[in-house]
Design a protein that fits this description.
The protein has 133 residues and is mostly helical. The protein is built from 6 helices and no strands. The protein has one domain.
C-alpha cells in the first residue's frame, strides 16, 4: 500500500464523516484533497469526486432514512433534478478550463460558508437544542 492509497482512504473517511455528520456532499472534501494532495487537474478531481460520492451518499442516505431523518418526497424531487443537473453540469465542465472551474468551486465554498455562518449566529437557541435531540 502506497502513501497515496493511504491518503485516499483517509480522505474518503474524512468525506464520509463530514457527509454523514453535517450533510455536506463528499465533493467538498474530495475535490480539495484530489487537487491539493494528489495534484490532479480540477476536471479529473471533480469527475473522480462524483464517482466516489456514490457509495458515500448511499450509505449516509440509508442511515438517515433508517433514523427517520429524510423527507422522501423532497429527496426524490431533489435527486431527480440533481441527476439532470449533473449531466448538464458535467457536459459543461468538460469544455471549461480547469483554473476557471477551481475559481467557481472556491467562490461557491466561500459563499456557502458565509451564509451558513450568518444563519448559525442568528439561530434561536431552541432550534439549536432541537437539532441536537
Amino acid at each position: 500500500m502506497s502513501w497515496q492509497d493511504l491518503a485516499a482512504i483517509v480522505g474518503g473517511v474524512l468525506a464520509g464523516v463530514l457527509s454523514g455528520t453535517i450533510g455536506i456532499g463528499g465533493g467538498l472534501a474530495f475535490v480539495p484533497i484530489l487537487t491539493l494532495v494528489f495534484r490532479t487537474s480540477q476536471i479529473v478531481a471533480q469527475g473522480t469526486s462524483l464517482a466516489a460520492i456514490v457509495p458515500t451518499a448511499l450509505v449516509g442516505g440509508i442511515t438517515h432514512i433508517r433514523q427517520g431523518n429524510v423527507d422522501m418526497t423532497g429527496a426524490l424531487w431533489t435527486g431527480g433534478g440533481g441527476a439532470v443537473g449533473a449531466v448538464a453540469g458535467a457536459l459543461v465542465a468538460i469544455h471549461v478550463a480547469g483554473p476557471f472551474l477551481a475559481r467557481i468551486f472556491g467562490v461557491l465554498l466561500i459563499a456557502s460558508a458565509v451564509i451558513m455562518w450568518r444563519r448559525a449566529r442568528t439561530a434561536k437557541a431552541p432550534e439549536i437544542a432541537a437539532a441536537g435531540e
